[in-house]
Amino acid sequence: MQLSTLQTLNSVRAARQAAVVVSDLSDGGSQVFPEGGPLPPMWEAAIGEALRSGRPRLAELGGRSLFFNVHMPPPRIVVIGAVHISQALARLAPVAGFDMAIIDPRTAFATVERFGGVELLADWPEDILPARPLDRYTALAALTHDPKIDDYPIRAALEAGCFYVGALGSRKTHAKRVERLSQAGVSAEETARIKAPIGLDIGASSPSEIAVAVLAEIIEALRRRDLTGQQGEAK
């Protein structure tokens, strides 16, 4: 890999951005294309496929043999609430390749005994997130059902452009949440990005089933995310 290519790639990685390195196998030349940046029209589909799938690919385009190698920051899930759903999700997330952290100021729930082996942050989200900012490769799942705990991280996730923002609660509960967020200055376009009720509609009822539905919805959002740098899903 050329030194200039490596330097650009390292800068992209340091910023927790995704990029595709396109290498011409005939002459050894390579270029880095960060997600959200301009793309050559002839390569746009191949680069987009690599970014969404996370898998490298070889392609013959324009009479050239090209290797598309994708570099993505580890996707992570930040869960607000040390609840039963979180316990099940903590077991499932690593299997699907996600790092996971749980934030909950309620020390009676956020205990090592209940969440051994998981990064557990027993403090208020507004005290934790400024030093541990969310980003486009983070999924946020708000599960406490308590506006005093959930609302701040939901706003932070929307502002950061997280690829997924989900919140527990019925449609009635969510309508009240949207009203609160709107009064706090969050736009209707932004609140429309919140997945609520959280999780794919698979008829889940137990905490473990809801965790499966939430993880499936997170995976869907990651693989179908918008690649232009705009928030929301790809069209």
From TrEMBL:
<dbReference type="InterPro" id="IPR027051">
    <property type="entry name" value="XdhC_Rossmann_dom"/>
</dbReference>
<dbReference type="InterPro" id="IPR052698">
    <property type="entry name" value="MoCofactor_Util/Proc"/>
</dbReference>
<protein>
    <submittedName>
        <fullName>XdhC family protein</fullName>
    </submittedName>
</protein>
<dbReference type="Pfam" id="PF13478">
    <property type="entry name" value="XdhC_C"/>
</dbReference>
<feature type="domain" description="XdhC Rossmann">
    <location>
        <begin position="77"/>
        <end position="218"/>
    </location>
</feature>
